[in-house]
Structure formats: C-alpha cells, structure tokens
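User: Hey, quick favor. My workstation is busy. Could you predict this chain's structure for me?
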Amino acid sequence: AMGAAPSEPSKEQAERLQDGWGRGCREAAAAIRGADVLLLCTGAGFSADSGLAVYADVACVPAYALRRLKYHDICQPHWLQREPQLFWGFWGQCFNDYRETAPHDGYRLIDQWAERSFRNSETAMKIRGRLLPPAGSAVGSADEPYAVQDRAGAFFAFTSNVDAHHFDWFRACEVRECHGNTELYQCAKECSQAVWRAPSAYAFAVDKTTMM
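Assistant: No problem, here it is.
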C-alpha cells in the first residue's frame, strides 16, 4: 500500500475531538434532519477512514524518500513524458490500493440518509424538474464509464478524491469529482475522444522496492 498509514491527530487534537464528539454529532444530526438538501463535500480525510493514506502520506515510501520526492513532486503530468515508469508506478499503485480497499461504512450510512430523506422528497422532485436531461450518450450506453440514468435530486456529492469510491454507493448523477479518478483513461495523443474505465480484473504490476 502507498504510504505508511493515514495521519493521526495529536494528543491535544484527539482530546478536543473527544470532548466535543457527542455535541457535534447531535448538532449534525439536527441539521441533516431539518435540511431540504444534502450536499456532501469530501476530501482525503474521508478516504482515510477506509484506511487509505491522505495526500501528506501517500508518497511516504522508501523509494521516493531516496529521491527526495514528495506527493506534490510526483503528481505532475510531465513525468508521463520524462519518466513514464515513475508516473505509472505511482498512479498504478494508487489504482491497486483503491481497488483493493473497501469503502468505509460511512458511505452506506449516507446512502441511507439520501434514500430516506433526499432522493424522493418534494424538494428533490422540484430540483429534478428544473434540470436538463443527462448529457452525452443515451441513458445506459455502454460507451459511458459511469452511466447517468437520472437527474440528481436533493442529494449531491462533490469530492476531490480520486479513488472512485463514491460511485460504489451513490448514483452517477449525484457525483462530481473535481480531479477525476484513477479508474478513467483516455488517449494522450488525440487518437480518440473516448474515455474508458479500466477492466474490472486489471491491476498494475508495481515493484514495491522501486515503485516502478
């Protein structure tokens, strides 16, 4: 796996979190219960609960330490031309880790909230009625990596995560990934405009000692 482990809070941070845990949960529950719309915004910390390393830790492996490379150094597109083995070693191992790690139970809980209170509510129907039909290919087309079969209602997820775990629980019309994800690929030399998803049984062969 990439990185040693997700970062942990300091003792002082942990104490503050524990002291306000009950109050925070009650306030959050009341806010969600009284809301007409639920907008879920997630980042690396949300994936950490699944056991995945956050951005600060994902490149903390000996092979990169020897070259004094950190995450912001490695995740640059120029490596695809300058040193493709480094590029594919990093993103290939991320791809493998994301596929081998199950989404944490929070996804299931939020999906239950969405189903119970936000997907089929009166507000959801009003929002759906004001949205344009899904763009792109015909609904359910095999050409689309994630088939958009409906319009989002009163639940929507916006994420900077690239593990594609949101699609495991939420509908494609409810998810917006500002950075895309490691499941999707397209030609770099304009040979095609198509975007495709990696085969379900695919895994990258990465040497953990060199990360290539």
